[in-house]
Hints:
The complex is a heterodimer. The model of chain A has no long low-confidence stretch (mean pLDDT 89). In chain A, a hairpin with a 5-residue loop joins β9 and β10. Chain A has a seven-stranded mixed sheet, covered by helices on one side. Chain A contains four helices and eleven strands, in the order ααβββββββαββββα. Chain A folds into two domains: 1-36; 68-204, L,D-transpeptidase catalytic domain-like. Chain A has helices at residues 2-32, 48-65, 137-143, 195-204, and strands at residues 70-75, 80-85, 88-96, 102-104, 112-114, 126-129, 132-134, 155-157, 163-166, 172-174, 191-193. By secondary structure, chain B is α+β, with helices and mostly antiparallel strands. In chain B, 32% of the residues lie in helices and 26% in strands. Chain B has an eight-stranded mixed beta barrel. Classes of the chains: A alpha+beta, B alpha+beta. The interface between A and B is large, with 64 and 71 residues.
Amino acid sequence: MKRILIAGAALLYLGFLAVLGGAYYIGLKQAAAWPPREDGRAIADKDLPKVTRNVQQIERRMSALLPRGLYIVIDTAENRLYLKNGTDIVRTAVVSCGSGVVLEESGGKNRSWVFDTPRGEFSVKSKITNPYWVKPDWAFIEEGEAIPKGLEERIEAGTLGDYALGFGEGYFIHGTLYTRLLGRNVTHGCVRVGDEDLKAVFKAVPLGA
Amino acid sequence: MRKPAGLAILMTIGLALAGGAAPGDKAALAKKQNSLNSEYALAKESQFYFVLDVLGRKLELRVRGMVLRSWPLQSMRFWGKPEFSGNVELVRKTTLKAPQRIVIKPGGEEKAAPAPAPADKPAAANAAPANPAEFELEALELKDMPKRFSLDFDNGLHVTVRSENAGSGGLLRGLGEAWGWYVYLPLRNLFGRGEGKGLSELELIFDGDKDAQAIYWHFFDGIKGIIL
């Protein structure tokens, strides 16, 4: 009985190894066949000029999509702002982007805000000097303060630095008092920039960029 | 006058011979046309998209044909027959321990730690760390992103992304990963073929932790891309 069991276990193990070997053989064959070879029969000789023209046309269309002049790229992961012209980096700035925190309002309204810097393609919609902050509701809720009824109670000067560039939906690239936290994700969605870099970017970048 | 005519004939013959491109060139041109067509469809949408250049060993995040970030691959391995044609869309991003957002609910039930509070006034010199990187913030940052995660695409392709260091997690974990790659996947590839379900498993390994973490950060659900 014992011998039968041992023999059975051995056969089972050998069978498993055989199956695994077969699986490896198939895997290796697949790996050898990749990447798939193209023997050039995809393009007939008579179609070659047409395909070449087509490729050149698509390349021209791709080039036409690239931004003209100066533009800004913000890396929210690394907290870096790049002022670019074509593929050249004109200036690099250390910035602060959104913290990713979620603020939930307790009480009746049950509103919530996610403090992310939005991703995507935007354009500079406004350029403001000596901006003042019109505090939104979340700024009071976050501090546990009552939401004021009058506009004048929302206005706070001096916290956004000397310049601000708006890129839509209430988001701005602006200055900051908290320069020690540049390079970290600490904001409520806006992009905070140091004074010198902000001035350079503000002067260089036109509306619509 | 015969010399210029002779030269012209020779040039014509030369051009005719050059016009017959080698099969390798035609294949490369065909591939270039396909990849440009796929990329243009994404680039004109002005949305972020990715390009995984398998032979070029790099993964790039692009918009409008412009490279925003480029991450070179340290190594790559695969099982099955990964299909690399056309556009793909990320369906799901999974990891063992996904980074959690801090949730603040002032005045109600506390769900999480307090919101990050930037320093209003300078603290005592010996209390505040000099380096901003040392501040412990309750925010979602790059360093909170996982170093090992999976990406599932709409064409059935399953990509595991990890940094080189993410593979080392103790003996048990190493054994588990080795079992998964060298036993489970080959068997799944073998039996899946019989059922008509091909396996398409790709593992991308990046040099530094930050590369893998940045990919997790930038790859959102629904991002489209092409795999060359």
